[in-house]
Structures are given as C-alpha cells and as structure tokens.
Amino acid sequence: MVYTLYIGNKRYSSWSMRPWVLLKALGISFDEKLHLFSSDLPKQRREFLTFSPSGKVPLLVDSETGAVVFDSLAIAEYIAEEFPAAWPKDKLARAFARSAAAEMHSSFSAVRNECSMNVALRIELGTPSEALQRDIDRLAELFTEGITKFGGPWLAGKEFSVADAFYAPIASRFKTFGVQLPGAAGEYIDRLYEHPAVQAWVEGGIVEPTLERLEEDSIRGRKVLKNLGE
C-alpha cells in the first residue's frame, strides 16, 4: 500500500498533526503533501478543493485501494483496519481509547478557541476563563483515569495508540501556553510531548513561514515569552 497524507502547516494545524503523528509512531511509511494555509481564505479553499472533497486537511489517499479518507478520526480508523496496533489489544483499553479519541474530536472547544495551535511560540496565558479551566480539569481527569486504570506509560496502556496521537496537539498547546497538569496527568503530557513523532512535527513547524492572521490568533495581545524559531 502507498499512503499519501495531505496536511496543513505543522506550525498551526492540530487536525493534521493527529494522523501524521500516528503514522510516524507506528512506523508506517507515507508520502507527505504539505499545503500551507493562506491569508486569502477563499483562495485557500479553492486550492484545497483540488485534492480534498471537503476543502480541508488532513486527507489520506490510499493509492492501492483508491480510498480517499477525510477527517482525522476517519483516517485513524482506516489506518487501524490495516494496522490493528493503532488501537489497544485489550477490549476495555480499546473502548477507553476510542472514547478518549472521540471526546477529543468533539469536545474541548475552550482549549481550541483560547489556546490556538502554534508550536513555535511560548505565550503567557494569564488567568484561564471558566470554560477553559473546565476543559483543563477534564483533561487532567481523563489522563489520570487512563494512566491509573491501564498502567501507562500511554493513555490506554503500554503501547502508543490513536488516543495518544489525538492528544498530541493538546501536549503542544499546553507547552505553548504553560498549562501545568498535576501528578500522573502532567507526567503523561510531558512524555507525550517528548515522543519522537511529536518532536519531529514540532521541529518541522518551528522552521515554517509564519502567517500573520494565525500568529495574531494565537497571541491575542498576550505576552510572547519565547519564539523557538528565532
């Protein structure tokens, strides 16, 4: 099989990061097609529609089957059909991992809205809003539950899974904004951030060109403590 993964900027695209990290972590070969976001959104959409039915990234193409798979969770499930190690073997761990991945896919809107993805910056968050604090507390609860129940070091046991790939952007966001989680949850976030696949993505994003509208969206008038790209 030959996979081609279409992605957006490593600096900004949390959705693209998930399947990219999953493929890298599992040692699955693929061709990467990077399509940088634009300041002209209608132009960006027209360009993305030339390869993606949704006009969005990520998108996986399997040249052997002809499958065109859009949406990060659908891509993860497609990969798992050929590589079952993408999910835990144990039924209970697999159920937890699927639940955790689905929750990330559909929830945590305050984290998405207030802590925009930017792998290259370190930003002073300030006092979190009530909504953001609820999301942070829920993430700490979820990570603690997974590590406690399945023994770690990953969210649903000994092996890296889809669930971990789905929370890789959270690890990056928390590093960007200095969010600290207590105990086992904090240790998990640190471990996830240091995973070689996550670090490879971050390193790629640091050297990418910046896009003013997305830089402003991540900073929002807050103090930039460090720019890793300088």
Question: On the 0-100 scale, what is the average pLDDT?
Answer: 97
CATH fold name of the largest domain:
Glutathione S-transferase Yfyf (Class Pi), Chain A, domain 2
Structural class: alpha+beta
Number of strands: 6
The largest β sheet comes out as: 4 strands, mixed
Distance from N terminus to C terminus (CA atoms, Å) equals: 39 Å
Helix content: 40-55%
Query: What does the oligomeric state look like here?
Result: single chain
- Elements, N to C (H/E): EHEHEEHHHEHHHHHE
Give the class-level CATH name of the largest domain: Mainly Alpha
CATH architecture of the largest domain: Up-down Bundle
Q: What is the count of structural domains? A: 2
Query: What is the global morphology?
Result: globular
The stretches of 5 or more residues where confidence is low (pLDDT under 50) are none
Strand order of the largest sheet: 2-1-3-4
> Percent of residues in beta strands?
5-15%
**What is the number of helices?**
10
Pfam families: GST_C_2, GST_N_2
Family: Belongs to the GST superfamily.
Keywords: Transferase
GO biological process, one term: L-phenylalanine catabolic process
